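Record 1 of the preview.
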Amino acid sequence: MSYLRFDKTLLTNLEESLPREILRTNRSGAYHCSTIVDCNTRKYHGLLVIPVPELDDENHVLLSSLDETVIQHNAEFNLGVHKYHGDNYSPRGHKYIREFQCEKVPTTIYRVGGVILKKEKIFVHHESRILIRYTLLQAHSATTLRLRPYLAFRSVRQYTHENCQASRHYDEVSNGIKTCMYPGYPELYMQFSASNEFHFTPDWYRGIEYPKEQERGYDFNEDLYVPGYFEMEIKPGEPVVFAGGISETNPENLNELFESELERRTPRDNFKNCLINAAHQFLNKQDGESYILAGYPWFKCRARDLFIASPGLMLAINEVDKFEAVMQTAMKAVYAFMNREETTLKVYEIQHPDVLLWAIWSVQQYAKFVSPEEACKNYGTFIKDIMKFLLQGKHPNFEVHDNGLVFVEGREKAATWMNAMVNNRPVTPRTGYVVEINTLWYNALMFTANLCAGGGDMEFSAELTAMAEKTKVSFVETFLNEYGYLLDYVNGSEMDWSVRPNMIFAAAFDYSPLDAKQKKGVLDVVTKELLTPKGIRSLSPKSAGYNPNYVGPQLQRDYAYHQGTAWPWLEGFYLEAYLKIYKRSAISFIERQLIGYEDEMSCHCLGTIPELFDGNPPFRGRGAVSFAMNVGQGLRTIKILEKYENQ
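->
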């Protein structure tokens, strides 16, 4: 039995099947995302979604869906599913689905009378091309397969509607056609491994709705253009492969190409392998540079997310070369920022005051997973340059005070990962001495000092060590309160006593300004007030403003984003702290916590972890369907746990 398998009872119940999504990506930035019954419920869903850098920096839906129709004895059975106004679904192809599983690739089994049809989908690794293989497993008489493409040719942020500007022109190519709806877009090639006949019957399918967008308070309907349909005979045991891409391919090679791509896939047959597959989806290569996308389907490469996620996404699964490639690109972006240079690199939000400190933390993990010597060799100069940049006051929002603490301004613009904005103002205006930034600062001072000492730069090492001693004393005096936890931020006489998760880093990092007793006090408060089965709450239920449900329109969700929702990536640091304090006795507790995420493999988006969860039961997954920091910290936790188990 497949690890990720669903039977007809669930699949034919749209209340159960529509919330379950499937995501597949490739290294070129293209992706396919839909529900497990192939009914698109988001504007971001599509069969072939690709970046079009000639137009903008967004992804674009070219091929929205491909409806299959099985024809026997002149009777047509349409296997597609689309939602229309009034909760109407037409056609209702999901009623023919008998099984769905995605251990290696998404595979759907349909049964129509005596016909059993298997559909498998796979992305080509390094080009914008999706392959769909149809195999007739059983049929008692001649069977025709009809395939009807639904075209969008629009940004994932927009919708398409019936218009007279859309081109209906198409050209025949080998075993298929190519077409392009609007200038500036690439041609869409639709080809088959078998000969077929294309029937040009252009029409618009109007009023298709996306309920996920309706839930989020956005416009939610569009019209899709269907140029016609392909028709071919299909025989039992002889697979037919469809290829949708932006360049022509050789139809004779499609079966072989599908098999070769299939061999490269790691089976999703357990929790860890699911996370490994999810980790591979975030790596994105463009113009010779390597990026980590923060999440799917709408995030780009954000600097903070890149540095926090990369050690887990790559180092924890022994893909050191990929980590080094991503860091090479990130280093260029950091130097461009520090030197105030224009850059075409697509690493965003690098200006936030904690980002450069997270870069050092990422190098620190490299030193632990690979070796301090390699870290010094490859990144020693880099992190020294960062520290000098910060100490010399060159960062626009990073001021080192005489007491050794870092002061940042966060009233007008969000300065930390708690970055929700309403009416151009931060929902959580954290300003002054911010607890995790100063924790990161102390950790960076100590790690860089030790790396410099190992590399022979004793003078700079001594300077950093002296600063760290000053920071350590001031940190405890400033943040530790009489209740045993850390204030979230301090700005003169203004102190934020809210119980938030940002203090957990002081218990988790290798270099902490807290002693063992103080770390345990912090861990106990987080355990008592913030821990959930799906992550660490962003605010305690006992604190003012607790708002745990990330639902409704954008404004409502912004007010809840960091006011009680639970974040899995934070739990990675919580579990690391727990292991450091309780050692091997913590192993069973850590394993129980991870089970909460294993359950998530068959919910929301299969085989991965969503962006966040509601802070109250039943802790529903919300936001982006797959989030890099969550997957990365999950894999890093598993790696750390394995280390303790093997001691």
